[in-house]
Amino acid sequence: MWLCYDVMTTYSYRQATDEDVSVVTDVYNEAIVEGGSTTDLVPVGYEERNAWIDKHRDPYAVFVITATDEDGTRRDVGFAAISAFYHRPGYDGVCSLAYYIADDARGRGAGSFAMRMLLDECAARGMRRACTTIFADNSASTGLCERFGFTRYGWMPDVAYDSRHTLHGMSYWYIDL
User: Which residue intervals define the domain N-acetyltransferase in the entry (predicted)?
Assistant: First the structure.
């Protein structure tokens, strides 16, 4: 387990199980409704998210991010995933990363914790390269990619809508592990 501390919060993670479907679904649906971070246009159901988690077989995985406050209060604040980049064997060792943090937990280090954990898990799982696709105007996530040493290898203008029908450009990032 990898731990990270901010001024008042300790972060930890665990691999998601069937008991975590609700937190993964709820955090993801919050992001869908809010707009600006996913191309899903309507909230997803628990069965759909459960099937998505089940598809993440080793070396891929979904993780739940937990925050513990100074007073010992623990709560799940997000999730992160290592997914297949492309389902052809020549791409084995290349993965796609994603993370979502609950709105009320953002700006407190949970995203940085998620990114560091994902990169550590990728290396431990034998990945050679990690990629991610981000709305180009999502400055928090693009800033994390820059801070962690990712290289932007592409940008496509005005290509994807979010749930609020806002058209976004997409930025494409990778890092060698």
Answer: 11-177
Using DSSP's 3-state secondary structure scheme, residue 39 falls into: coil
Tell me the pLDDT tens digit for each residue of 4-32: 544 589 999 999 999 999 999 999 999 99
- Which CATH number does the domain housing residue 46 bear? 3.40.630.30
The band of 66, judged by pLDDT with boundaries at 50, 70 and 90, is: very high
Say if pTM beats, i.e. exceeds, 0.70.
yes
**Number of neighbouring beta carbons within 10 Å of residue 109:** 20
Q: Is 145 exposed, middle or buried (0-12, 13-18, 19+ CB in 10 A)?
A: buried
* Bond before 59 cis per omega within 30 degrees: yes
Q: Give Cβ neighbours of residue 87 (< 8 Å, ≥ 6 apart).
A: none
Supply the range of the domain harboring residue 59: 4-176
Structural domain total, the chain: 1
Alpha carbon separation from 76 to 22, 24, 100 (Å, rounded): 10, 9, 11
User: Quick check: 116 and 6 in contact, CB under 8 A?
Assistant: no
176, 165 in Cβ contact below 8 A? no
